Amino acid sequence: MLRQCARWVLTRTRAGRGCRRYSSCSPSASGDAGEARAYFTTPIFYVNAAPHIGHLYSALLADALCRYRRLRVPGSASTRFSTGTDEHGLKIQQAAATAGLAPIELCDRVSAQFLQLFREADISSTDFIRTTEARHRVAVQHFWGVLEARGLLYKGIYEGWYCASDECFLPEAKVTRQVGPSGDPCPVSLESGHPVSWTKEENYIFKLSQFREPLQQWLGNNPQAITPEPFHQAVLQWLEEELPDLSVSRRSSHLHWGIPVPGDDSQTIYVWLDALVNYLTVVGYPDADFKSWWPATSHIIGKDILKFHAIYWPALLLGAGLRPPHRIYVHSHWTVSGQKMSKSLGNVVDPRTCLDRYTVDGFRYFLLRQGVPNWDCDYYDEKVVKLLDSELADALGGLLNRCTAYRINPSGTYPSFCAACFPSEPGLTGPSVRVQAEDYALVTAVATLPKLVAGYYNDFQIYKALEAVSSCVRQTNGFVQRHAPWKLNWESPEDAPWLGTVLHVALECLRVCGTLLQPVTPNLADKLLSRLGVSTTERGLGELYFLPRFYGHPCPFEGRKLGPDTGLLFPRLDQSRTRLVKAHRT
């Protein structure tokens, strides 16, 4: 039998103050705080092991959201993006001892690996924070002092289950037994499967139980506070269950690698409270200027740390007199060939190897195109090659190559659009009209693409945004194939206007798609837009007007020289098929 459920022995050694009502208001999804400034964060990553593709996926999601925001609201001063490493706690203390290192040596080594990975992956963060920094210690101890001054901390005896791997306490309902290495049943976390041990010690305790109603009110008033919706509902369900007070410190004799409790060196601040405050540290807390960035904050997190970010963190913020974050975007995990990644299985995928093998933009595209936040996604090498060859090399790269090749576009310009060949009203007839009904469907699809993509980004469905872009690329290829410009003659008075129009429409489609791909594949999009002759000042979402000549307006690109040809947009990864195609052509 498992022990009886964990219990609080409320032997208070510091008198708590009277109960207080906490406001749970936060800006709406379109509120001023969310529009004037935006602050994106990844989790800070634990340094007990080297980074894997799950860590990179979190960073890429945040990076894409941040880059999209910068395209929509130009000016770097209005957008911030932080990532970093979580370097305190029992796991770090134990891992360092096992490796024969001082904890800070282990932290320096692994934190550098995360920093290097994110640089190589073109993560455009404005801050990389480490919880061992002096600025963070100041922020955490100040935050602790605010909670204490507001009567939300007391000392008590905690007795219950503790999971060192997850750095959290667990109620009885979240503990089960599994057969261990010795063959005996061992208590483990029901959610993570990690071992737990029974713990009894005197800690500081946060009055979490007072915050059920404020948290419910916050979520009720802000239906998009947690996205996707199933995770929002999961948090509401948790709030229907018992919400016991939360231990927020450990004995220093047991956990010395952390930030000491102010005024009580016998206690170390709980690693999760320490870690969560990093989001405030980055924007200057406790200096007054931090309020210009808080709560205009979007946290991007994995589903395994949802409770810490959607219950503990908002409650701690409310307790400190601050508002919860603007939004919490939650994603699921990556498996490898159907199995969970684990060191014991030897199937942990090294993201730096993938960046080298598939190119930086290629692997960014794969993870964001295939990753679906609502459920776990599977990785295997063949899937990466197939997707990138199909969508980047063949469809997108092939289309660009077709429309800019000397044989079809010998002048190397953005050709003119002929309204007589492609009238804005479907069904018109005349000697010059060459347009077909399907062509109007393409115009509608690309014209509405920016708004469609905006909605997907707002709903944290970047994979759907990429799917929509890919669909328009396919439709544009169909348009080019349908009208076969290689069969038309620039010297023919009948062919030339239509040939120019076909290329103009195709290049306009490429320009829109390239602009919308910038948050995901920044270098590839830059190469594409540069080839089209689109300057860096013409790549924002505010300048994204599709096919203006169709609507009777001038086109600034018409007649402009194309940019230099720098080679294939994205070379195929499966060279065996490339060789077969070449052999067939010869």
From TrEMBL:
<dbReference type="GO" id="GO:0004825">
    <property type="term" value="F:methionine-tRNA ligase activity"/>
</dbReference>
<dbReference type="GO" id="GO:0005759">
    <property type="term" value="C:mitochondrial matrix"/>
</dbReference>
<keyword id="KW-0547">Nucleotide-binding</keyword>
<dbReference type="InterPro" id="IPR023457">
    <property type="entry name" value="Met-tRNA_synth_2"/>
</dbReference>
<keyword id="KW-0030">Aminoacyl-tRNA synthetase</keyword>
<dbReference type="InterPro" id="IPR041872">
    <property type="entry name" value="Anticodon_Met"/>
</dbReference>
<dbReference type="InterPro" id="IPR009080">
    <property type="entry name" value="tRNAsynth_Ia_anticodon-bd"/>
</dbReference>
<dbReference type="GO" id="GO:0005524">
    <property type="term" value="F:ATP binding"/>
</dbReference>
<keyword id="KW-0496">Mitochondrion</keyword>
<dbReference type="InterPro" id="IPR014729">
    <property type="entry name" value="Rossmann-like_a/b/a_fold"/>
</dbReference>
<dbReference type="Pfam" id="PF09334">
    <property type="entry name" value="tRNA-synt_1g"/>
</dbReference>
<dbReference type="InterPro" id="IPR033911">
    <property type="entry name" value="MetRS_core"/>
</dbReference>
<keyword id="KW-0436">Ligase</keyword>
<keyword id="KW-0067">ATP-binding</keyword>
<keyword id="KW-0648">Protein biosynthesis</keyword>
<protein>
    <recommendedName>
        <fullName>Methionine--tRNA ligase, mitochondrial</fullName>
        <ecNumber>6.1.1.10</ecNumber>
    </recommendedName>
</protein>
<dbReference type="InterPro" id="IPR015413">
    <property type="entry name" value="Methionyl/Leucyl_tRNA_Synth"/>
</dbReference>
<feature type="domain" description="Methionyl/Leucyl tRNA synthetase">
    <location>
        <begin position="39"/>
        <end position="403"/>
    </location>
</feature>
<keyword id="KW-0809">Transit peptide</keyword>
<dbReference type="GO" id="GO:0006431">
    <property type="term" value="P:methionyl-tRNA aminoacylation"/>
</dbReference>
<dbReference type="InterPro" id="IPR014758">
    <property type="entry name" value="Met-tRNA_synth"/>
</dbReference>
<comment type="similarity">
    <text>Belongs to the class-I aminoacyl-tRNA synthetase family.</text>
</comment>
